[in-house]
Amino acid sequence: MLNFDEDDNISFEYDEEEEEEEDDEEDDDTNIEADVEDSDDDASSFAFESDDNDHAENYKSNTTSNNNNQLDTPISKHLRDDSSVVGCNGTLYLPWSIEQFIQIKFLDALDKLKTFNLYGCSDDDLLIMLQYKKWQQEEVVNEFFDNHDKFYKKCGLLLGKDTNNQFEIVKNFSCFICCEDYKSTEVYSLTCNHQYCLKCYHHYINNEINNGRLITCIEPDCKFVIPHKDISHMYSLIESKHSVIIVEKTLLQNPLLIANARELINSKITYKWCPATDCSSFTELSISDVSCEAQKQSDLKNSNDISKVPIVGCFENHEFCFNCGYENHLPCPCWIVKKWIKKCEDDSETANWIDANTHTCPKCHTSIEKNGGCNHMTCRKCKYEFCWICFNKWSEHNNNYSCNRFRDDQKEEEIRRNKSRQTLERYLHFYKRYSIHETSMKGDKKTLRKIDEVTKIYMEDRRSKNEINNLSWIDIEFLPEAMRSLQNGRKTLKWTYCFAFYLASSNFSQIFETNQDYLNKSVEDLSEVFEKIMDKKNDDKVGTILKNKIKIINLSELILRRQKTLIKSAEENLLNGLLKFEID
Amino acid sequence: MSRVKRIAKELEECRQDTQSGVTLKLNNENDLTHLTGYFKGPPGTPYENGLFQISIDIPNDYPFKPPQMKFATKIYHPNISSVTGAICLNILKDKWTPVLTLKSTLISLQLLLQSPEPNDPQDAEVAKHFLSNKQGFEETAAYWTKIYATTKDNESVNVELKDSQLYGIDDEIVNQFENMGFPRDKTIEVLRRMGIKSFKGVNNKSDVENKILEELLKECQ
Ligand SMILES: [Zn+2]
Ligand SMILES: [Zn+2]
Ligand SMILES: [Zn+2]
Ligand SMILES: [Zn+2]
Ligand SMILES: [Zn+2]
Ligand SMILES: [Zn+2]
């Protein structure tokens, strides 16, 4: 990529080959699965027979063969046996990754366009033309043959061979934008030869790129368009600053294509982004019966029928609600979620008070930092074991786990004195539990990620030493499933506090609370097992995992069952009116 | 930091340039992010002989993000808010590029005074005035220039501030309703809201008068 010629000018050029190589992606933050290999390293695995316009269908059939685990969304696995409950007949929710979107909507269009042999057009030109025509390759072909000079101009291109876009190092350069006088610096220019230093060009592009539109030369009236490849090359150069090796991005990682894809996805209501942090995948609603879908949407607005809540899976297997865009909030119906989120925002100041008051040991008042997700706390100073949620002694409520319930009878006369204080305390009671589980989810995630790392390292190590009696992936196959079960269980648990806050008390609300207690218990138990495995003092972490295998499997199945039971019973009792929400 | 170098250079260049008629000054010697720009109203326009002050804030990401500019001098122009001085100009928004400078932007503002774009208005009331009665608009704009944009020492004019004239409203209408006992400010407010500047060319004068009366009665309840 680096060419030194006599004039001491260094120019950067691409190599067609580089398109093919894909650098190993960093392990996604959110991907807690112990995926052994990436089956879709090769971009062509997305390809499908041309002439067929139904991309979604094709994509589906393809991913089924390539990423079995990914299309099998957890919701159909765990919570709903019949996934058609979610939508009307013919309604499909398809998980997408941005890369797939780019491949199918953009690059496949490019491949088709290439078959037309548009005279004098490089791939760079074709990409610009396609993006200009919103990826409708037929329109590109039509306009090209209609009047190609005019079309070229409109796209900000110069006919074929005359283009002269350059990255070069020049001496004694004064950049008009940053006003630096460089002894020697890298500059970029298009055919128009409007040269600016690379830093300024990159900064400019970085600002413009968020629109997702084609980017022209910096000069205000200059219409030349910067090719996609130059943009990604510029990013690569800036990112690999001071290093000799420049890692080129593939078209799938092209910053402008990604930005353009984001723009297109944002602009259509049939696409919804996964709300999970660090997740850039999204889900598409493909409807065949529009009127049914519209009816469903309006039904959802105030419905207590939680079997209709469209919980969908994203490409990374995160569950979320397609209706309101939040994470899987079952057993809460969407309208309750909306109310709750609003309330939490309005009351965020009171909630801060909780933070300030919950960070000390109830016995010796030493401040305590919580690391993992488990709520069984042991004070480092006085060794007092207590529950992070209710602050009671841990041993006391281990068998009869009931720290979830808000008791009106505590210090009765005092509370009665002040009705509004009671309301606040009631809210704080539920909010605290809701937010603790939210924090614990992050803690769990950290622990799980570490476990994932440890097992991977262990496996690598064994493999390199060629040990015969080594642990195989089959032996720890149960781990990803258990990890997901813990995460999803805790998520459901978190939302039960929102549910319970609005729940009118009755005999059936007590059943709900009992289910909640059970789920709470098994979630905390599994969380604790994982946390113990990752304890700093434990130096045989993998051994501990294997020793606890049965326990982990049992607990994770228990969580699934209890989660399912809780949601199912909430669903039924809401429908037959035995559970009611009380809204003031 | 490139922003500092760049602004310093722009200031220096502006100082040396005597041709463009555009001046740039720092509000405070130690702060490069708050400036004031000055230019004269273009001859042959209602802004002639006026000196206009532009307040300029430089964002952190300058020159990659446009400077924030607004008229500190009150001005009557369809693309500039007659209340806040906010400017509707594409290069101050999405058409900005880092090659543009404070000077070139001020020159563009000067050009904007020469050729208003009433179809892309910032101030709807002014734009309506411009489109419906160009001459009335120009008189009002010139009046504003006189009142607000003329410095006391370079002009001997000592005009009396007339509220009706400020909005280009025929003083006779205001007097008419004032004589009926309505407060002057309320009358002007109602006339502005209804977009009535004069009775010239109005056929159904008595209908319009009745409507104004109705509004005034509501207003003064
Ligand atoms: Zn520069
Ligand atoms: Zn150019
Ligand atoms: Zn996701
Ligand atoms: Zn929802
Ligand atoms: Zn303690
Ligand atoms: Zn407890």
TrEMBL record, chain A:
<dbReference type="Pfam" id="PF22191">
    <property type="entry name" value="IBR_1"/>
</dbReference>
<dbReference type="InterPro" id="IPR017907">
    <property type="entry name" value="Znf_RING_CS"/>
</dbReference>
<feature type="compositionally biased region" description="Acidic residues">
    <location>
        <begin position="1"/>
        <end position="52"/>
    </location>
</feature>
<keyword id="KW-0862">Zinc</keyword>
<dbReference type="InterPro" id="IPR001841">
    <property type="entry name" value="Znf_RING"/>
</dbReference>
<dbReference type="Pfam" id="PF19422">
    <property type="entry name" value="Ariadne"/>
</dbReference>
<keyword id="KW-0479">Metal-binding</keyword>
<dbReference type="InterPro" id="IPR013083">
    <property type="entry name" value="Znf_RING/FYVE/PHD"/>
</dbReference>
<keyword id="KW-0808">Transferase</keyword>
<dbReference type="InterPro" id="IPR045840">
    <property type="entry name" value="Ariadne"/>
</dbReference>
<feature type="domain" description="RING-type">
    <location>
        <begin position="175"/>
        <end position="217"/>
    </location>
</feature>
<keyword id="KW-0677">Repeat</keyword>
<dbReference type="GO" id="GO:0016567">
    <property type="term" value="P:protein ubiquitination"/>
</dbReference>
<feature type="domain" description="RING-type">
    <location>
        <begin position="171"/>
        <end position="407"/>
    </location>
</feature>
<keyword id="KW-0863">Zinc-finger</keyword>
<feature type="region of interest" description="Disordered">
    <location>
        <begin position="1"/>
        <end position="75"/>
    </location>
</feature>
<dbReference type="GO" id="GO:0061630">
    <property type="term" value="F:ubiquitin protein ligase activity"/>
</dbReference>
<dbReference type="InterPro" id="IPR002867">
    <property type="entry name" value="IBR_dom"/>
</dbReference>
<protein>
    <recommendedName>
        <fullName>RBR-type E3 ubiquitin transferase</fullName>
        <ecNumber>2.3.2.31</ecNumber>
    </recommendedName>
</protein>
<keyword id="KW-0833">Ubl conjugation pathway</keyword>
<dbReference type="InterPro" id="IPR044066">
    <property type="entry name" value="TRIAD_supradom"/>
</dbReference>
<dbReference type="GO" id="GO:0008270">
    <property type="term" value="F:zinc ion binding"/>
</dbReference>
UniProtKB/TrEMBL annotation, chain B:
<dbReference type="GO" id="GO:0005524">
    <property type="term" value="F:ATP binding"/>
</dbReference>
<dbReference type="InterPro" id="IPR009060">
    <property type="entry name" value="UBA-like_sf"/>
</dbReference>
<dbReference type="GO" id="GO:0061631">
    <property type="term" value="F:ubiquitin conjugating enzyme activity"/>
</dbReference>
<dbReference type="InterPro" id="IPR015368">
    <property type="entry name" value="UBA_C_fun"/>
</dbReference>
<keyword id="KW-0067">ATP-binding</keyword>
<dbReference type="Pfam" id="PF09288">
    <property type="entry name" value="UBA_3"/>
</dbReference>
<keyword id="KW-0547">Nucleotide-binding</keyword>
<feature type="active site" description="Glycyl thioester intermediate">
    <location>
        <position position="88"/>
    </location>
</feature>
<dbReference type="InterPro" id="IPR050113">
    <property type="entry name" value="Ub_conjugating_enzyme"/>
</dbReference>
<comment type="similarity">
    <text>Belongs to the ubiquitin-conjugating enzyme family.</text>
</comment>
<keyword id="KW-0833">Ubl conjugation pathway</keyword>
<dbReference type="Pfam" id="PF00179">
    <property type="entry name" value="UQ_con"/>
</dbReference>
<keyword id="KW-0808">Transferase</keyword>
<feature type="domain" description="UBC core">
    <location>
        <begin position="2"/>
        <end position="150"/>
    </location>
</feature>
<dbReference type="InterPro" id="IPR016135">
    <property type="entry name" value="UBQ-conjugating_enzyme/RWD"/>
</dbReference>
<dbReference type="InterPro" id="IPR023313">
    <property type="entry name" value="UBQ-conjugating_AS"/>
</dbReference>
<protein>
    <recommendedName>
        <fullName>Ubiquitin-conjugating enzyme E2 1</fullName>
        <ecNumber>2.3.2.23</ecNumber>
    </recommendedName>
</protein>
<dbReference type="InterPro" id="IPR000608">
    <property type="entry name" value="UBC"/>
</dbReference>
